[in-house]
Amino acid sequence: MLNDLPTERVTPALRFLAAEAKLSQQSLGERVGLSQSAMARRLSGDTPTTLDDLARIAGALGYDVRVTFVERVPQAVAS
What we know:
Elements: H1 10-20, H2 25-32, H3 36-44, H4 51-60
């Protein structure tokens, strides 16, 4: 589930991992150094999650973050 996530699936994956770890937004925020409301905004997608945020949140959940750059395949133009 967590391998090769498209960017739009990162926030749901963080919510899933937090739920699996049985961590509330408050507890996770304390581990990361964010308030409960700041953590809620990141987990809901209301506040963009930076790579630094992502690494800190993932670390608090027992995970590392790996970023991979993949060359785009040009899409055919419909005529």
